[in-house]
Amino acid sequence: ATAALQAVHEQLDAEVAELQSQRVAATGSLAESDVALYERVRKQFHGVGVARLEGGHCSGCHMELSARELDIVKAVPVGEPAECPQCGRIIVR
Question: Which of 79, 88, 85, 87 is nearest to 34 (CA)?
Fold first, then answer.
């Protein structure tokens, strides 16, 4: 049992290392300010810093955005992070 547990720990450590490597590669092309925003929001929401805009509501807080709020989110230029006016998560459109 000890050997099996050790093998699982080693496998998990290898997976963590691979995911950390992928994360470094993925964030390498992002602006430092965008990464800092993501880290701040992710910490605030216990690991979930990004939400999808689904129709007229945020998939993070599940709040319906008003027409004015939707206009504000949609007015953010492509390539810049938009934030949910209700919860503050980064919105992916």
Answer: 79
